[in-house]
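2024-03-11 09:14:02 DEBUG pipeline.ingest accepted 1 chain
2024-03-11 09:14:02 DEBUG pipeline.ingest length=758
2024-03-11 09:14:03 DEBUG pipeline.predict start
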Amino acid sequence: MEMALGRRLAAPALALFLLVLLLLSGVRPILVNQGMDLLFRLRGPLPPDQRIVIVGVDEASLQQYGQWPFARQLHASLLARLQGAKAVAFDFLFPEPGADDAVFSAALAQGPPTVLAVAPDGGHGLLEPSPSISGYSGIGHIETMLSGDGIVRQVFLGERRGAPAFAISLVRVAGESGKLEDGEATPRIINFYGPESTFLTLSYRDVLDGRYSAQVFQDRYVLVGAQALGLGDSHVTAFTRISPTPGIEIQANILASLLNASFIRPVNWLPLTLIALFALLPLVVWPLAGERRNVLLNLSLIAAVAGSAFLLFQRHFFFDYLSPLVFLLFTYLFYLLQELVNAARHILHQARALDRRLDERLQLVYHPHGTAIAARKRSTHALLSPAGIQDHLDRLQEAADALSLQHHFLENLLNRELPPLILWDSESGEPVFANAAFRDFWQAFAARDGSALPALADFVDHTKPRSGEETRLQSGGKDALPQLFDLQVRMASGRRYLQGSMHHLFAPGTGFSGSLVLLQDITEIKELERVKDEVVSIVSHELKQPLTVILGYGQMLSEDLDGPTRTYAQKICSQAERLNRMIRDFLDIARLESGRQQMKRFPFPLQRMVAETLETIQTAAVKKGIQVRQDVPEKTTPYSGDEALLVHALLNLLDNAVKFSAAGTVVQVSLKEEADRFVLQVADQGPGIPETERQRVFGKFQRGSRTEKDEGFGLGLHLVHQIIEGHGGTIEALAVPVGATFEIVLPKAAPAAETSTQ
């Protein structure tokens, strides 16, 4: 959890670090200023304050009155035209005495309250009006504050070297000092009402010529200043990015902001608050939402912040909205980058795993078919590099080719090599796939119903179940068919017997489950079974009875005759007995293979079975001079099996051991109980079994190369093998230096016996 929290904190931390670097590099003032200018342009001009009139020295005035500066007598005449004004302000400097200062001073004394402009002198003083000028009501500095980009945005309303601001002085001389705001020492953001000529602007010439009545100036603030560009008193503002605004109009905006208390007030705490809130987004919101929702959320936040900034600005409040938005942008970009890195890591991991699977699958597909195409070796290029991506695309193309090859192989296999096969959807019972062999079969089998593939329920109606499956077939549905069932088909070529096998399939991840049926034509097998049954019947009844008669008369002759004749009779008895054993083993094998020999499973002690079997073989062993030893525990866990068949199997092994062992040798029988099985061994010191014959010695009619030609028919060990396998066990001939050793392994959890209905 700590690692997950650290990963989520990484994006806002990096964004904050980058933002701090930008702010330290001096970018923040640019963001603040540009953001403010944008709001000015979006807001547009405001209705001008009708109390303010500008009298501008324009190009026409310069043409009318000649070289600048004008004679101060003209200013005196202008003041005479401005009688009735609340206050007048001259945005001109008068630092030097003039010839007509007396006239100008008299006009100042007789006219409305007038403020004269002052400015810093480049040192520590002011360029004040010449001492020869008097009669004015006050002075005010006309200094404004330029931003780093040369645009006027702020003004200092406090005193400069003892002189108040131009607008402050004007309000004071007008007797409206109550309009002044607190905190005049703090620079104020000018609320620009619009571009040039937003306020009522009159030509200096036209006013002096008397083209406007005194009513125009009644109770108004009249600002007199330079307006012609050639006079050099102009600056760039938020509204005039191309053509500068005359200084007198900037002073008019300052005065309007003062009179209406409409200076733009900064809200400094809001950007930090927004940054803190945005820092929580990668921790809480973004991981829980999808990518589309995150994009919509971010766009909504940007719109909300920008809209809030605009609404507040209309109410004369401003906050640095671009810094939080830049932080939000950085945070989201870093978050996306982090997610992309995580996704790339995941893709890289999956791609590497896919590459390994591709290698394995390509080897499986290509190599078995002996094609010249080999699986591509793993590239040394980075997976996400252009070369690595190309290599991966090449590998995917190889995989597509391999799949195509496999598809053709499977198609040929299903349609040309396999017997009839059909797949149904287990839920709907509708056919999904059938190979060509099944289509041909069904068309011949159900010609009356047309060639359409059958549904599962329709197919069930044509099946003949094995014993005990009738109820499942009648119920229908996906589990209607048993694992094995039989079909008897009447076709043009005659009656055919088919055996069906049912397999239930499930595809993980897709939810598909199907029922697969594979049909095998067992007509020939049925015929062979019929012939086999006839042979078994003949052997059992027609051969056994005369053989018993031959054996009985042969034994009688061997007892009554002497000399060579008796030897002949004994030879007849020996061969008859040998043939009788062969018939008995043949019938036992036939019964086991056909399922007619039922294994009766009852618990019994194996050590008892071994002891009884040794007693049976003891006479033959003593007669031949062979010692039979046993290594058997006194007590074992009861084993559940067919004792008679196991005795038959053990007796067969012991009989062979005695038969093929020389006089004076030992036959060893051992029994060992383990946790989950019994191990029984029969070892002799006879000629043994060659290594090349150990694997096939249990086959039918397989005789060892060291066996005499008149010793057995190769059925005994095969019968033993059938008995042991029927108990779920194994038997093998071990590799030993002397003689032969057979090892029988019987699991304690023996499989249930199968019941035949034939």
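2024-03-11 09:14:41 DEBUG pipeline.report The chain is about 45% helix and 15% strand.
2024-03-11 09:14:41 DEBUG pipeline.predict end
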